[in-house]
Structures are given as structure tokens and as C-alpha cells.
Amino acid sequence: MRLSLSILILALATTPSDGTVERRLVVMGTALEISVTAPSRREALEASEAAVSEIARVESLLSTWKEGGPLARLNTAPAGAPVRLPSELFELLESVFAWSDRTAGVFEPAILPLVTAWGLRTGGRIPPAVELGQALEATGHRRFRLDSPSSAASKLQPGAGIDEGAWGKGYALDRAADVLRAQGVSSAVLDLGGQVLSLSGVSSDGDCVGLADPRDRSRLVGHVVLRGGSLSTSGNSERAMVAGGRRIGHLLDPRTGQPAPDFGSVTVFAPSGLVADLLSTAFFVLGPEKGPELSRRLRAEGVTHEVLYLVERESALEAVASDGFVPAIEDLEVSRLWLNDIPLPAPATRGRKKTTEGRTP
């Protein structure tokens, strides 16, 4: 995910409700769509402005694309040199580092050396074996030391670096949601670069989010009804690159240093945008065979989430879903739905079909 400090207001309009404001902007290097409902249009507009400002603040905190931010300074500091961090960022790094351990390293925030080796920020390249080996050696959060008393971090190895791409959007959505709640808003939907967060749903029926076909992102293969929480999808269909005649996915396996095999897409629901964001990356890296096992383990540990894989099988599309995801699915067009390792028929239409697209339980 590319971060940019600029915010461009593209449109501002109201829905049929006088107290609902819809806006489209560019922030964090991607599109943001936000819909806020409040007792009055003025209150909705003020709340949406506060949420957008909060996302911009998080962007300046996390951006590693521009010089000067605290995370960028940590990445460029010499090995062994402590860098004082804002307490918010320090605690966030403690959290995402812990999530790396919790997922056995398939989610890894300190993956910048591999991102650089594969040229994922510069159009893609095939790294020589020696360079890739060096990048893999420098990858991992254990190449950093966090010192709680001073809120300082330091690199333990030259070349180590943190990339915010698999967790920055989710965290920004969480913080924006906190701001909206503080403004008294109880109904809002935010779509930041395809990751959706809902505050209680814009209507009592929930918000309908389109599920894109991983083979053709312009085609929907179903919908998910989202009633609060966040929905994040990971896949390579839009951001894959070609280098040296080879297709390179932008989702890397930090254990091997290679792009994760492309099978389709994975969508994760979680109450937290941060958790949905990082788990969709982890589950994609593991793939549809091993990902559900990690999902079951995390749910047994108390991590609330649901997962849906869309898997390309020759000319067909199959789905692998956790139990709790299925009730939220509408009109899923797949040849087979696998639930708890038991093949079931594809579900029929569940309730009325909504027309909202681009938003995902």
C-alpha cells in the first residue's frame, strides 16, 4: 500500500437522507469512500471531516514512502542507533510484532528488505539469488529492538526495515472509527482502498459488499452483508507485476522470500480493521489448504474473525469458508462451497439482493 500525504477531495454529495454525507477522496495513496449519517447534514459533514483528518494523521505517522516520518526515520537509521518513537507508534509496533509471532511469521511487518529486493515499489524485478538471500536474512521483526522505558526502537541488522502495507490501512480505519464514535456517530461506512469498515451499518439491514471474482475484478460473484466490523480482501489480481517474463505477486512469503503462490483471493471479517488487514495477508500467504487451520487455531484462542477463500480450480471457482461467514453471504456464484472440510452445494440466494458494490461481515 503506497502512502501519500496529499488528500484530494474528488466529490461531495448527500444521499436521500438529509443527515447523510457521502465523500470520495484520495488519501494514503488510494481511494477513500466514506458515508456518515448523523442527526443533521452539518454534523455528518463535520464528523466525516474529522475522520478524514485522522486518516491523514495516521498516514504521516506510518508512511515509509516519504522522508521525515518516525517510521521512515527508523528504517533509515544506522544499525544500533535508537530512534525515539511517538508512544502510539511504539505500542502499535509492539502489537504488530506480536501478531507476527501469533501467525508463526506468515504475517511479518518487518518485510521491507524483501519488498525492496523484488522491486515492488518500483515496478518489479527478479532479484539475484545472493541479493535475495541477503534480503531474507535482514527480514523479520527480531532484527529490531524495542525499548519500552524510552519508547525507542533500533535496528539490530543493517538493511532491516518495516513496511506498513499489510496493516496500515486497517489501523487507519480503526482510528477513524474511534473519531466518528467520539463525534456521536453510530452509523457510517468507510472503504479505504477496498478494505471496508462499518459502524453498525448505514441501514438496519446492514451494508452489502461486493465479492469480486479473483479472475476478473470487474465481475462480482456474490455479496457479503456487513453489520459492523471490517472486511479485508487480499489477492494478486490487480497489483501483480511482470518482470523478466515472470508474473510477480505483491504478497510475499517472509519465510521463503518468494511471492506467495497465487490461487485466487481471501476475504477476512474481524471487528478490528487492523486484525482483518493483517489476517487477510497471513491467510493468503498460507493459501486455502493451510490457512483455514491457522484460522481455526486463532478462533480457538479467542481471536474473533471469519474467513472466505475464493479458489481458482481450472475453469471453475470454489469457496472455502469458516462456519460463521456463510450466513452473511448472498448470491455466491461458485461451483462448490467447502465448509469444515465437507463439500456442500453452492448456497442459493439469501434474502434480497442489494445493489451496493465495492463494500464487503
Description:
This protein is α+β, with helices and mostly antiparallel strands and 361 residues long. It folds into 3 domains: 1-63 and 164-193; 70-155, ApbE-like superfamily (T-fold); 194-361, ApbE-like domains (T-fold), CATH 3.10.520.10. 29% of the residues lie in helices and 29% in strands. The chain has helices at 41-62, 70-76, 87-102, 112-117, 129-138, 168-182, 273-300; strands spanning 8-14, 20-27, 30-37, 83-84, 144-147, 152-155, 187-192, 195-199, 207-213, 216-226, 229-235, 241-243, 246-248, 264-270, 306-313, 316-321, 329-330, 336-339, 342-344. The strands form 4 sheets. It has an 11-stranded mixed beta sheet, covered by helices on one side. A 3-stranded antiparallel beta sheet has the order 4-6-5, with helices on one face. A 3-stranded antiparallel beta sheet has the order 9-10-17, with no helix packed on it. Helix 1 (41-62) packs antiparallel against helix 6 and helix 6 (168-182) crosses helix 7. Mean pLDDT is 87; it is low at 1-16 and 341-360.
CATH class of the largest domain: Alpha Beta
Total beta-strand segments = 19
Can you identify the CATH superfamily of the largest domain? ApbE-like domains
Overall average residue pLDDT: 87
Structural class: alpha+beta
Measured as a percent range, the helix fraction is 25-40%
Gross morphology: globular
Q: For the largest sheet, list the strands in their spatial order.
A: 1-2-3-7-8-11-14-15-16-18-19
- Specify the number of helices: 7
Computed Rg: 20 Å
Point out poorly predicted stretches.
Answer: 1-16, 341-360
Q: Please give the domain count.
A: 3
